[in-house]
Automatic annotation (TrEMBL):
Protein name according to UniProt: LRC43 protein
PROSITE patterns: LRR
InterPro entries (UniProt xref): Leu-rich_rpt, LRR_dom_sf
Keywords linked to the UniProt accession: Leucine-rich repeat, Repeat
Gene3D superfamilies noted in UniProt: Ribonuclease Inhibitor (3.80.10.10)
Cellular component GO terms, alphabetical: cytoplasm
Region (Disordered) location: 29-53
Domain of life: Eukaryota
Amino acid sequence: SFTAAFQEHLRRLGLRDFPCGLGSWNKSRFDAHTSSRRGQAGLGTEPAGQEEAMPVGEESPEALVELLSHQHSPWAPPPGCSPQDQHLREMAVLTPELICGSNIFQVLRSLRIVGKGVEEVDEGLLQLQQLEELVLSANHIGRITSANLPRTLKVLELCCNAVADLQDLCVEPPLELQHLGLGHNRLCGPLRDKFLTAASWPNLVSLDLSFNNLTDLLGLVSQLSSLQKLRVLVLQGNPLALIPTYRGFLVDSLPKLAILDDINVEPDERHKFRSLARQPELIRSEARVVVSVGEIKGVPDPSAQQQLEVGTEAPVITYSYCVTYEF
């Protein structure tokens, strides 16, 4: 579950262990006399009394922070550590009381849990009440319920999962969401029930549906046309992208689109494809593939005529082959 992966993520960051957290290495900075006053210090602020000589056995805040960042330090950032993760670790040195216990749920605004085998996004995610960016790429998520997503979310990245149905995700999702990434999933065929409309995603600016199995271009455009703030769209890798008029039809159908499949939509291109959206009959839901085999080695040539002597009773041998292509 997400909760289990999140707890393991925090454990790997070592927010309660040296040089982070509270311990003998910084005891005098957080004693009972000054904890309330020091609790106001944020990341990058020098705690009161820092300029004084450190007691024997303790380390200065600068030395502790350096241990977290130096590449040759045993406490260097673990593999895959994001800037937000490193920010948390430094906070755990300078103001550990701000991220101890449940306080950490009020601090996190960006979270990346990538390739950790997450299958379920449970209600534990709702504890992150200030979360704005969530990246859950390369996991095993098949379904995701919008009821378990924080209302503050602006970026949701679910690339390389197993999402095949958008129904649960599109029931009252976070209204402030600006980017939705669903590339390399298992979405297929026509998307039913108008899942990708402004009714569910009124502030969506960027949408990634690449490398799925979407085939209904007309149906998809009818939904996306209601997304008035949509500026970036990625659909490459879907069967519908094989349609000859694919790019032109999208450019003309979505006049506010600025980037399609990582390519800027230029004014001259928009002029070139003007009025194409009014001709849906040009869109064919089929493709023709011609394959030519130049040479096959290692098998007899079936086209070679066997020269049989007149009057011979030898049997005639014929050869035939089947070549199969999978698309």
